[in-house]
Amino acid sequence: MKKLLVVVFSLGLLAVASVLLFTNVDSSAAQTKMVVYKSPSCGCCTTWVDYMVDAGFEVEVHDTDDMNTVKAEHGVTRNVSSCHTALIDGYVLEGHVPAEDVTRLLVERPAVLGLAVPGMPIGSPGMEQGDPANYDDYDVVTFDGQGRTEVFRHVTN
What we know:
Blueprint: H1 2-22, H2 25-30, E1 33-38, H3 43-54, E2 58-63, H4 67-73, E3 85-88, E4 91-95, H5 99-108, E5 114-117, E6 138-143, E7 149-155
Parallel strand pairs: 1-2, 4-5
Antiparallel strand pairs: 1-3, 3-4, 5-6, 6-7
């Protein structure tokens, strides 16, 4: 009987370890709440929020007419600026950052302030408009709050 209990207990531990090791990366990202600051009248920001929710993130939205203050408080410099600013697990997200890049950021945990998609490139999440053949290629960049950036991923549309 003791051997059977040991076997059952061992199998249970193995099952738990397997789940922890092989769980989809997206599910771990979804456990971290994202806080988004945006203008109440910005439609593309709302579309990006919906996209992030559809990607599995829990999102809390704060509408504000003072985005410049939000950006300044979180180290978003002019060279990476876009329309909305989000916070997640100690990182800043600026603009239309794709969900897969947020997930990668949370897994790899680089020593950066955050990720940005500067400007508002057509075809980035929340900016899908017009003919997809005319979508922009763009860079997702890391930033440090001092104006330094580095390409995290180049997106080709």
